[in-house]
From TrEMBL:
This is Release factor glutamine methyltransferase. The lineage of its organism: Bacteria, Pseudomonadati, Pseudomonadota, Alphaproteobacteria, Hyphomicrobiales. It comes from Vineibacter terrae. Residues 6-76 form the Release factor glutamine methyltransferase N-terminal domain. Substrate binds at residues 188-191. Keywords: Methyltransferase, S-adenosyl-L-methionine, Transferase.
Amino acid sequence: MLTVGELVQAVAQRLDGVGIAESRLEARLLLAEAADWTLEKIIAERDSAVEAGIVARVERLAARRLAREPMSHILGWREFWSLRFRVTSDVLTPRPDSETLIEAVLRALPDRDAPLRVLDLGVGSGCLLLSLLHELPRASGMGVDRSARALVVARQNARALGLAGRAELRAGDWGEGIEEVFDVVVSNPPYVPSDDIETLDPEVSEHEPWLALDGGADGLDCYRRLTGELGYLVRPSGLVALEVGKGQAGAVGRLIRAAGFTDLAVRDDLAGIPRVVLARRPITG
Ligand SMILES: C[S@@+](CC[C@H](N)C(=O)[O-])C[C@H]1O[C@@H](n2cnc3c(N)ncnc32)[C@H](O)[C@@H]1O
């Protein structure tokens, strides 16, 4: 009979063999899922024997991962901003890079207890809007997505996090038809150039929604559309924060400036890549 440590080692080796970087952590997470154990238990009980039924469940999950299905789809969740978000193939898996946007917005707000109105365009799983509402106790917001299936997941996340009463989630084409002005507008739009999608890791190109990835020929299509709408969605002196892909901060900054926004700032992610463009709508104009 295999011990916990031996099983983790064997699965990690196979994951390693197909180029999965965090193979040991993922092997532990697969065992945690299969056995309904915590990671602490897996580490503490590394010399205990594992029941055959659990080994068989781990094998089934490992086979999916070896076929490069994302961990977030196998587990059904991903942690973001220390909150647990349900994830399916209908939404983009929340990325650690996007936490840069949450941090940047929170730092830019003078009063986190204000009753702010927040708009998230392309809300997906809800990770941006719901993390902000979690940090801003008196804020409320609206999340828009063109994908009805993504909105189902976002609503489940809003309920699970106890934020459904403060988050309106609705179908829409970016800002079309929205008549309100918001204190904060955030977006992480699709920004991968169309021809690059197939070159991405199979976890992304084969399992994530193209609607969440495809940014058109140069990756900037959605920014052109969004910056054309921001002028009537952000209140005077309100804040806009856009996540951008590698190498896009300059072009997106120019689009925002051309839309009449000022106080431009760029924030880097943990890898030092310019990841978020911030700007304010002037008080006049
Ligand atoms: C890159 S994902 C971001 C999801 C989530 N905000 C996040 O940061 O993980 C972009 C999202 O924009 C949505 N989207 C694409 N085109 C849209 C449109 N025309 N109007 C509204 N949402 C759109 C996609 O369905 C997807 O959920």
